[in-house]
Amino acid sequence: MDDIDAVLTPELIALQEPPPDAYACIEYLLDCAVEAGRVTDRDVALEAVLAREAETSPAVGKGVGLFHARTEAVRRATVAFTRSSEGVPLGDADAEPATLLFMLLVPADENGADDHLETLSSLSRALVHDEVRERLHDAESPAEVRTALAEAIS
């Protein structure tokens, strides 16, 4: 995976409570990426994320939700993060509401496919650990979020 500093900048981390439903949460995370200058076309990126979500649930278990897509609306891999104290239902009846929410956007080009799989894999491996999830819930700053993920991924 690209260095955590490159894919998850402080502007891509929102520690305030996100909206309580999945669609609004997608828009919330996407807006973080737009405001950070990482998305060139919000509508194209939103369409890609919604299309991907229609194919497979973003619920990955253990209270983690991961919205992701390959899209021409980004030039480099981007991860946005937020967390919810109440949890956001992600439409999977068997899944618990997600309290840790990520959005991964990677370029649609050939290199983006590799970045997409590598980043998804790295995040998934890190987030299976209770300690990592606890650190993300307890983080008081974007720097603490980035440190928790960097240490878990490296």
How would you briefly describe this protein structure?
The chain is α/β, with parallel strands linked by helices. Helix content is about 45%, strand content about 20%. Helix 2 packs antiparallel against helix 3 (about 40-55).
Report the sheet with the most strands, covering strand number, pairing sense and barrel closure.
5 strands, mixed
- Please count the beta strands (DSSP E, at least 2 residues each): 5
What ranges have pLDDT less than 50 throughout 5 or more consecutive residues?
none
Radius of gyration: 14 Å
Tell me the distance between the termini: 9 Å
- The amount of helix comes to 40-55%
Question: What is the N-to-C succession of helices and strands?
Answer: HEHHEEEEHHH
Task: Provide a count of the helices.
Answer: 6
Main β-sheet, spatial strand arrangement? 1-4-5-3-2
Please state roughly what percent of the residues sit in beta strands, choosing from under 5%, 5-15%, 15-25%, 25-35%, 35-45% or over 45%.
15-25%
Mean pLDDT, all residues:
89
Q: How would you classify the helix and strand content by structural class? A: alpha/beta
Q: Which geometry do the CA atoms define?
A: globular
